[in-house]
Amino acid sequence: MPTSTWRTITTVTAGENTDDQVFTLGLAESADGSGGHLIVQTSLQPPTEQDTATGMDTYCVMDDQGGVQYGGIEHVELDDTQLTIRFSEDVAEELSVDDGELQLELDLDEDATTRLRDGLRRTLTYGNPDQQPTLVGF
């Protein structure tokens, strides 16, 4: 699988889809959909027993290369200029993240930065507490 090489976030989308019962946070290199992206999604409902039994009782991470994983983010640090995400070894491999860490520069206005911070907090604290990463700068 190719390695993700994008390094700048210029677009952040966040919102609830009540038809599908999910909250989705999207980070993208460009507003037109070209380039890299990362999506973090959670259910609008608490995890079910079946979710827990299958390991789907947490957030889901998807990337522009087709990688999909549940949980596996260990540490997230956010400031006004950069977002750093450290993944577990398994998830880093699935998402083709070199050295297990994704460092993304932020080219965002204040509203988009707020959407990013709030969306990360909401998605990454959903469900199984063992899958919730350390959050710095939130």
In short:
The chain has 138 residues and is of the alpha+beta class. The chain contains three helices and ten strands; from the N terminus they run E-E-E-E-H-E-E-E-E-H-E-H-E.
Name a few traits of the molecule.
globular; 138 residues; five-stranded antiparallel beta sheet; single chain; 3 helices; 20% helix; alpha+beta
- Helical content (DSSP H or I, runs of 4+): 10-25%
In terms of quaternary structure, the protein is: single chain
Order of helices and strands: EEEEHEEEEHEHE
Outline, from the CA principal axes? globular
Q: Tell me the number of structural domains.
A: 1
**Largest sheet: number of strands, sense, barrel closure:** 5 strands, mixed
Could you give the count of β-strands? Answer: 10
First-last Cα distance: 32 Å
Structural class by helix and strand composition: alpha+beta
Number of helices, counting only DSSP H or I runs of 4 residues or more: 3
Low-confidence spans: none
Strand arrangement, major sheet: 1-9-8-7-10
Radius of gyration: 14 Å
**Beta-strand level of the residues, as a percent range?**
35-45%
**Mean pLDDT figure:** 93
InterPro entries: Imm10
Protein name: Immunity protein 10 of polymorphic toxin system
Pfam family, one: Imm10
